[in-house]
């Protein structure tokens, strides 16, 4: 491999500035039009974005909201769960997934994950179900789907709704064994996503949305996100104030038109990493589930032999950022620790927290930068 010099510009984990520069005329025009219209709350761009995203996802209803955490909370609220009801989710995920369960007075029931897909371990989900189980929240981590075929079958058999946490996998598709294909987030009772700036479809602030095929659930979600009212000043249920800002919706309308290209760019970058890293002793490249496309919100390696932190430091010394998603499983977090889940209870998640390392991944990543990253990885394992 021919040595490549270190890039002259800093290497970002996510390059939002370059992404913006490529679509600046479109974004600037959309923002100017929204500002001139003067409808900053629930302006026409919000409704238009919801309709356009529904078409993209091939789902009947999209309900925009303020952020991805609110989307998860609203989904649970819409099910009408009672304090003490149990909700099953993964211990290896971002805290928001369990946070909203606890905030509503529900009981988070944590389970371990698959060591290669990082998604819910179906056997453990089955064992965790009790008479109090009222929802299951699979997380489509890093850009690839959980085992939706098995989860959908289990949920239907037990009469338990699935709420898909799709914050990292918007745009990915899943194919069932009967050949039916659907976008992730649209297969369960509800799907939730975030438009945090670094997401595959990100705005320039906070934003989120829910998806559902159920008209009654959609009506309830819209009402709950708007102070529990369908008619102004008539509050039929307890709700909250969770709105997607009109300016963010205008930006998202532009970016949605580019999302498939952003995804293709990420997939190309992932293949480039694969080709340069595959076979290197000491690390494993991301596993691909043949049932799910992968949109690579993150390109996450598993580093073996206890060398993850040393590799991270080696990359940092070479000017290469990397991130650990996530350094602690939920059951080891002080806010969610419990005698029910002592350390060692979820060995896969605990091992992953010592192994995973995400490399720079975004739609503007260049082969030149990737080659430098790959060579730096090689220099660590084969100095």
Could you characterize the architecture of this molecule?
This protein starts with 15 loop residues before the first helix and ends with a helix. The chain folds into 2 domains: 20-253, Type I PLP-dependent aspartate aminotransferase-like (Major domain) (Aspartate Aminotransferase, domain 2, 3-Layer(aba) Sandwich); 257-381, Aspartate Aminotransferase, domain 1 (Alpha-Beta Complex), CATH 3.90.1150. A 4-stranded mixed beta sheet has the order 1-9-8-5. Strands 3-2-4 form a 3-stranded parallel beta sheet, with helices on both faces. The relative contact order is 0.17. The protein has 383 residues and is an alpha/beta fold. It has helices at residues 16-37, 44-57, 68-78, 96-103, 122-128, 148-158, 215-225, 246-277, 308-317, 347-353, 367-381, and strands at residues 61-65, 86-90, 107-111, 133-137, 163-165, 173-175, 181-183, 190-194, 208-212, 229-231, 234-235, 283-284, 299-303, 356-359. Helix 3 packs across helix 4 (96-103). The mean pLDDT is 96.
List the helices and strands and how they pair.
Layout: H1 16-37, H2 44-57, E1 61-65, H3 68-78, E2 86-90, H4 96-103, E3 107-111, H5 122-128, E4 133-137, H6 148-158, E5 163-165, E6 173-175, E7 181-183, E8 190-194, E9 208-212, H7 215-225, E10 229-231, E11 234-235, H8 246-277, E12 283-284, E13 299-303, H9 308-317, H10 347-353, E14 356-359, H11 367-381
Helix pairs in contact: 1-8, 2-8, 3-4, 3-7, 8-11
